[in-house]
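REQUEST FORM: STRUCTURE PREDICTION
Request ID: SP-0412
Submitted by: Lab K.M.
Chain count: 1
Length (residues): 280
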Amino acid sequence: MRILVTGAGGLVGSELVRTGRVIGLTRGELDVTDSAEFQRAIEHYHPTAVINAAAQAGVDQAERDPSGTMRVNSDAPGMMARVSAQWGIRFLHLSTDYVLDSPHSRRLAEDEEPNPQSTYAQSKLIGEQGVLSSGGTVVRLQWVYQPGDRGFFNRALAMMRTGQTVRLVTDQVGCPTPAEMVASALLTMAATGPCGLYHLATQGEATAFEWIAAGAEAMGIDFLGVAAQRADFDGAHRPARSVLDSSKVASTWGIKLPEWRNALQTVVRGSDRIGTGTDQ
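STATUS: Completed
RESULT:
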């Protein structure tokens, strides 16, 4: 296998690179919105599979820059999937639970009707459709984090480490999923198997309040969280509940991620990247 990863500077992309099993190209090295650049990368590296981890992942930024968000999240994935198909290259694209916004208390399977409620969610759904129409594979992820120095998880804990309180919502529910576990699963999925739409997340469910409380305990940090409601915050819409059902990926590849608390304990024990919590 020769796997090319776009968006290699992001959370999942950087974890894929850390495995030492992929060729990673950052945003500065490959503009995924430029079809000529992508074509040249394919001709140069001759990959057997491409994992597209590139995205404009800022939910609020998407509302401020919808056209830029659409170029990266909507147009680029479909273009890369078409080019990959022309070369006979397996193509995997990372998407998000945000395309689903359901009132149901059950876990959401791949046949759940999409219901995007923000520019970000709409852009990701269009990207999914472009990939699937070209015979690629879409992997929806949820609440991805990694102990280290970027993202909401690390920012919240960094604030608590310095004695600051953090408002954490109790009415938004998901599956906190470590990036390193996602990366391992993606390598398996890139090697072989059917194409299509799949969900990949940990087992169980948590509110943001419960997630960060567990993280603080695992890292030995005094928990300084204050309960809040989603309506207390400005910004784009976030799904109140979008807990992914990952049984399809389990039955297809034998991949079943742990319960979210066990996954958290595993990555905290194995991490040597506990940083300051600044985003990158």
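NOTES: Confidence is low (pLDDT under 50) at residues 273-280.
Reviewed by: T.R.
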